[in-house]
Amino acid sequence: MGLFILSAVGLPFLALFFFTILEAAFSTAGIWAVLTKAGLDLCRVSLGIVGAMFLDIRAAGTIVAVVLLLELILAATAMLVEKRATDMGILKQSTKAFGILAFGIVSMVIPAVLIVLNGGH
Amino acid sequence: MATNFLIALATALGSATFILLVLRVVLKAVVPNAFKEMIAIPEKVVERQFTETVKTPDEVQMRPVIIDDATLLALSGRQIVDLLGNREQPLQVIYNISSFTPEISGMQTTSLLSSRWQGARSFIVVEGKIPKARETEEKKALSREEILSPPGQSTANFGSAVKKSVRAPNETLCGSAS
């Protein structure tokens, strides 16, 4: 099970972490722009992690579908915050970046925990 | 399965809070000034505000009143004053050169003007404003010469307050000049 979790969740997360560090090192964008992009990337990567849940689709196909849609909603909300932060009353770059990052983390952890709880089959 | 989902949700929220808290503390220590950065106002909003500023009624009223010399001669001083929306509004008078120098033919007039002003032909546009000193004498019937020549002027001409410029008149107002 450990290897399964590592390949489904650990590898994508570590790859994302690696590329975020690279971007922070070589990009001219500010720290908040880098974190915002990392949050959106977390949302995208989490959609891939949900794919691992389909391996256990016999157990709870409906739950997998619900989680997939939840992931899509979280990703869409993160994009909404990114594009319309000012309209939503968010004035600080830090608040915007942390908000998007929070959506990314939540959307990544939910399928990861579900895989762990289901035994990683 | 529903219990698992709730556990996953709680774990996600808890871990997100924890990670963001740690990240915030670290960033506060490393780059404290970064937290003061504000989101830039989108360009579209700025553009819309600029357009609204340009279209204020005061600005619209400052457009010059365009009139030709023949009509201006027929008006009294009071009528000229009433013609303007306010005292700061400029007055553009279109003079026909042939009325001053009838011996100059149309071709000669054209050759006097540079090619850049081909549309002007035999017209001269003079722009001016009524001097502010006149504002207190509204009740007095002003003559055309008084409006165009402020007090202290030794010779009567278009007046010191008149900003003279030779430019191509608006053909829609003047018709096609030849």
Q: Which residue ranges of chain A are poorly predicted, with pLDDT under 50 across at least 5 consecutive positions?
A: none
Extract low-pLDDT stretches of chain B. 114-120, 159-166
DSSP summary: helix tally of chain A: 4
Number of helices in the DSSP assignment of chain B: 9
Number of domains of chain A: 1
Q: Structural class per helix/strand content of chain A?
A: mainly alpha
Work out the helicity level of chain A. Answer: over 70%
In sequence order, what are the helices and strands of chain A, one letter per element? HHHH
Largest sheet of chain A: none
Mean pLDDT of chain A: 87
Oligomeric nature of the chains? heterodimer
The rounded distance between the terminal residues' Cα atoms of chain B is 91 Å
The proportion of residues forming helix of chain B, as a percent range, comes to 40-55%
Largest interface (CB within 8 Å) is between:
A-B, 31 and 26 residues
Descriptive report:
Chain A is mainly α and 121 residues long. Chain A contains 4 helices and no strands. In chain A, 79% of the residues lie in helices and 0% in strands. Chain A is flat, with a radius of gyration of 15 Å. Chain B is α+β, with helices and mostly antiparallel strands. Chain B contains 9 helices and 4 strands; from the N terminus they run αααβααβααβαβα. Chain B has 2 domains: 2-54, no CATH class; 63-172, no CATH class. The model of chain B is unreliable at 114-120 and 159-166 (pLDDT under 50). Chain B is rod-shaped and about 95 Å long. The chains are: A mainly alpha (121), B alpha+beta (178). Chain A binds chain B through residues 30-32, 35, 59-60, 63, 66-67, 85-86, 90-94, 96, 98, 101-102, 105-111, 113-114, 117-118, and chain B through 1, 4-5, 7-9, 11-13, 15-17, 19-20, 23-24, 27, 31, 34-39, 41-42.
Q: What layout of secondary structure does this protein have?
A:
The complex is a heterodimer of chains A (121) and B (178).
Chain A: H1 2-26, H2 31-53, H3 61-83, H4 93-117
Helix pairs in contact in A: 1-2, 2-3, 2-4, 3-4
Chain B: H1 2-30, H2 43-54, H3 57-61, E1 65-68, H4 69-74, H5 77-83, E2 91-96, H6 97-100, H7 106-112, E3 123-128, H8 144-148, E4 162-164, H9 171-174
Parallel strand pairs in B: 1-2
Antiparallel strand pairs in B: 2-3, 3-4
